[in-house]
Design goal:
By secondary structure, the protein is an alpha/beta fold. It is built from five helices and nine strands. The strands form three sheets. A five-stranded parallel beta sheet has the order 4-3-7-8-9, sandwiched between helices. Helix 3 packs across helix 4.
Length: 172
């Protein structure tokens, strides 16, 4: 199964969540055992042998892909969540959205200074969530090894907000 085959498992839904948006639905890929397994392996491959200590995934689909990539890399996994969902001492980062602001949080003790961290998510769109996650990782003193995304929506130029190694498996 190639990346072209993986694209066949991503459904395009016009006018969702509002008119003029073409939504890339990954749920058919998640339901296909071969497609899911291949996508995880291909996301992990560029980072094998790179001494990744932790994979960080943002709520919620970053949990799916990040945990699986962490297993492939024999790394730990750290979650980044919306405000009010983590029970322990937290660090937070507020960032701009197209129309407003949002905030992400991570446990303050989730990363030990100097650990090598890979950030994994399902989609790179405008880059706000990924950039904020990268800033949280940096705030805790980690070395950011890179970013890995299943899908990149290149026309939104989210990559421009990220520093370092950015890998995307599928591009639209």
């Amino acid at each position: 199964m190639s990346d072209i085959d993986l694209k066949n498992h991503i459904r395009s839904i016009p006018d969702f969540p509002k008119p003029g948006i073409l939504f890339r639905d990954i749920t058919p890929l998640l339901a296909d055992p071969g497609g899911l397994a291949l996508s995880i392996e291909l996301l992990a491959n560029p980072f094998r042998g790179k001494n990744i200590d932790l994979v960080v995934g943002a709520e919620s689909r970053g949990f799916i892909f990040g945990t699986a990539v962490a297993c492939c890399l024999s790394a730990g996994f750290v979650i980044v969540r919306k405000p009010g969902k983590l029970p322990h001492k937290k660090v937070s980062k507020t960032y701009d959205l197209e129309y407003g602001k949002d905030t992400l949080e991570m446990h303050a003790d989730a990363i030990v200074k100097g650990q090598r961290v890979l950030i994994v998510d399902d989609v790179l769109a405008t880059g706000g969530t990924a950039a904020a996650t990268g800033q949280l990782v940096g705030q805790l003193g980690a070395e950011l090894a890179g970013y890995a995304f299943l899908v990149e929506l290149t026309f939104l130029k989210g990559r421009d907000k990220l520093q370092g190694n950015v890998f995307s498996l599928l591009r639209y």
